[in-house]
Specification:
Elements lengths: L5 H9 L4 H8 L3 H10 L2 E5 L6 H9 L6 E5 L13 H9 L6 E5 L6 H5 L9 E5 L6 H10 L5 E5 L8 H9 L4 E5 L25 E3 L5
Parallel strand pairs: 1-2, 2-3, 3-4, 4-5, 5-6, 6-7
Length: 215
């Protein structure tokens, strides 16, 4: 096993799809462990995640090529321990230079300050915020200004998002191709006009909204 070319070992690992098999394979040798970590492109964490800074750095630095990160606290209760906060989020962002796809679900301890750290993720193209109760328009404006390559934005149950300056900025930037808005009571259907010329770049089939209609 140790004599096989690294490219061949990487191809073998790519063909193993079951997580349990991947975990077992990585225990065979340190070389396989390292290659498996390099090949890993996505990770999903949430309840039970150790929030000690050293532990976060150790976990996310192990996978240098992560491009997709999902942080999901659905079903969280205080008995699960503390949630990821702004500082913890910054640690994760700092360890993921290749991040292009991010999902935050039910992350009640991440607010506009934390979202502002995404300005360091220059490659970010897709952002999904689901039940992000502390996120406001200010945080989204920071994303619109700092993430020039953002092409997909999903906002679901983001009740504090209201002002549409961030929409105007995204429209001017012109990179947005997909916009999904659901149960965001602070945004009306007519606010989408703030996208200006950027509206024409949205794929019709991918522009979905469930917003209030102003009377």
């Amino acid at each position: 096993m140790e004599d096989l070319p690294e490219a061949l070992l990487a191809e073998i690992i790519k063909r193993v799809t079951k997580r349990s098999d991947l975990n077992s394979l990585s225990l065979v040798s340190k070389r396989l462990f390292a290659i498996q970590a390099e090949q890993k492109g996505s990770i999903r964490v949430g309840c039970g995640l150790c929030l000690a800074t050293e532990a976060l750095v150790s976990l996310f630095s192990r996978f240098p090529n992560l491009w997709k990160v999902e942080i999901d606290y659905a079903g969280w209760t205080p008995s699960h321990g503390d949630q990821l906060d702004n500082h913890d989020f910054f640690v994760i962002i700092s360890c993921c230079p290749s991040l292009t796809d991010l999902t935050l679900s039910f992350c009640s301890q991440i607010d506009d300050t934390g979202l502002g750290y995404l300005c360091y993720s220059e490659k970010l193209t897709s952002l999904r915020l689901n039940s992000a109760t502390e996120i406001t328009s200010s945080g989204l404006l920071s994303v619109a200004v700092g993430c020039k390559s953002l092409s997909s934005l999903h906002l679901i149950n983001c009740e504090k998002v209201g002002s549409t300056e961030w929409l105007e900025y995204l429209g001017l930037n012109g990179s947005l191709e997909e916009l999904v808005l659901r149960n965001c009571n602070g945004i009306s259907l007519y606010d989408l006009i703030m996208l200006g010329p950027g509206w024409m770049k949205l794929h019709y089939s991918r522009c979905r909204s469930k917003l209030r209609r102003e009377r």
